[in-house]
Design goal:
Shape: globular
Largest sheet: none
Number of domains: 2
Oligomer: single chain
Helix content: 55-70%
Length: about 140
């Protein structure tokens, strides 16, 4: 973890350090996989859509893992000498800005079959950023 004495929480964390811990992308990919063997005979359109999105998401996760490895030369691992809470906060801050951009470009057009629109995503991300910043403040006192 980086020294927090004079930390500006918008400053990028140092490059990760390789170790013997599991790669976090592999954990996320395993968490994302669903067992479709029991529903293959009765795959409703909604489940078929979910299975399709699941397959795409798994590929996206693997692509992001590969990108990170090419960029840093190591997989994202626990104990990599970075501050995961700060990394998460910075990424969520970027997601807030991108979701606001999508809201400006798309308006309140639903983005899925459940009627979720970009404003919902934006507000959820804004709330998440607030919670993460509060966690950093609680931990570091600034």
């Amino acid at each position: 973890m980086a020294d927090q004495t004079e930390k500006n929480f918008s400053t990028p964390e140092p490059a990760p350090v390789a170790n013997d811990n599991p790669a976090v992308w592999d954990l996320v990919i395993a968490d994302t996989k669903i067992d479709t063997t029991s529903i293959t005979r009765v795959l409703t359109p909604r489940l078929a859509h979910k299975a399709l999105i699941q397959k795409l998401l798994l590929k996206d996760f693997q692509d992001r893992s590969d990108f990170g490895f090419k960029k840093y030369g190591v997989r994202l691992q626990v104990g990599n000498k970075r501050d995961a809470l700060v990394d998460l906060f910075q990424e969520v801050c970027d997601a807030v800005v991108y979701s606001r951009l999508c809201l400006e470009e798309r308006g309140l057009t639903p983005i899925n079959d459940n009627g979720i629109d970009m404003e919902d995503v934006y507000l959820d991300l804004l709330d998440t950023a607030h919670q993460l910043r509060a966690a950093i403040y609680k931990r570091d006192g600034k």
